[in-house]
Amino acid sequence: MIRMMLASLGLGAVLLAVLSPSGAAAQVRSYVASNGGGTACTLAAPCSSLQNAIEATQSGGEVYCLDPGASDGAQGVAITRSITIDCRGGSIWNVTVNGTGISVLLRNVIVNSFNIPGASGVGVDLLNGALTLENCVVQNWNASTGSSIGIGIRVAPPAGVTARLHVTDSLIRNNGLAASGGGIIIQPAGSGSARVVIERTRVENNTFGIFANGIGSTGVISVQVRDSVVSDSAFSGISAFTSAGHSITSITVDRSSSLLSGANGILAQGTGGFVSLTETTVVSNVTGLNAVSGGAIFSYQNNRLTGNVSDGAPTNVLAVK
Fold first, then answer.
1. Residue 67: is it exposed, middle or buried by C-beta count within 10 angstroms (0-12/13-18/19+)?
2. Is the pLDDT of residue 13 over 70?
3. Could you tell me how far CA 181 lies from the centroid of its own chain?
4. CA dist., res. 301 & res. 293, Å (int)
5. Tens digits of per-residue pLDDT, 189-228?
6. What is each CA distance from 237 to 25, 42, 284, in whole angstroms?
């Protein structure tokens, strides 16, 4: 009888620890509002901080912004667990995703530097995990922050990590410094690898548009660009950049456009750098297609290459089957 009572008391203590405010269980859904406060982050008592809402939410749960004014201002968020954040056009200063095996969805989010000096210089920084951006805007990560980095979205997995990025129905604009950085920069380190899909997305007015850089790694970089437009890049629109002994860097461009670039519409540079084109338009660039230092550009012969100062040419043609 005494043992049963002790067991019952022990179970009660556990339940109290789980249910009490000091040990409250993480919730499935949390809420943020422009007029919120505290850390409960419930629908009845939303909080004002996205970071607080993330911490209040269990892995695999959801965070919702109740109005477009909900924002973390100049604080940013760090995500280390699987979560969905749906912000109805609310804004975040910057986002870092870093967690083994996690899956993160950002929906209806504006990631904006607000032109605030002292910003990190990177809007969305993916180090580890799988990240999807759906109907998002990433903008103004440029010289206005005073940072030596200006990147809208960076995929930078360290050694031994494969990071996965999926960008859909989004806008990436006004990112980069005078001669570096840009819209979407993919640059693993060590043996890190990256798998990237970009679809139905506009990448515009960046220093470099989509830049896959394999110089710092040996893992595979694979990028698919589909039904998207890359325009008004100060330098190259879409680039696969590597060298012998470093990452195989492959970009497939499908039913997309690269135009109005200050340098190359499509660049493949270095042995192991490949770009494949199908049903793609490359027009009004300084150079349309440019394959140098062992890089290769493959064409399925159904592309439109015209109106560039120098059109260039693919290094190989492939049969459409």
1. middle
2. no
3. 14
4. 23
5. 999 999 999 999 999 999 999 999 999 999 999 999 999 9
6. 47, 44, 11
Residue 211 · residue 179 · CB < 8 Å: no
pLDDT tens string 240-286: 999 999 999 999 999 999 999 999 999 999 999 999 999 999 999 99
- Taking the whole predicted model, whether its pTM rises above 0.85 is answered as yes
CA pair distance 277, 261, nearest whole angstrom: 17
Closest CA to 314 of 266, 242, 264, 259: 266
Handedness of CA 203, 207, 208, 213 (dihedral sign): negative
Q: What is the DSSP letter of 304?
A: E
φ, ψ at 311 (rounded to 5°) = -70, -35
* Angstrom distance (rounded) from CA 210 to CA 231: 10
pLDDT in tens, 44-63: 999 998 999 999 999 999 99
169: left (phi over 0), alpha (psi -120 to 50) or beta: left
Q: Give which of 180, 266, 190 is closest to 223, Cα–Cα.
A: 266
Q: Are 92 and 109 in contact (CB under 8 A)?
A: yes
The label of the residue with tokens 């997305």 reads 201
Q: Beta-carbon neighbour count of residue 166 at 10 Å?
A: 16
| Average pLDDT score over residue span 169-180 | 97
* Single-letter residue type at 114: F
Length of the chain as a residue count: 321
Gap between the Cα atoms of 48 and 99, Å rounded:
24
List the one residue out of 84, 115, 112 whose CA is nearest residue 97: 84
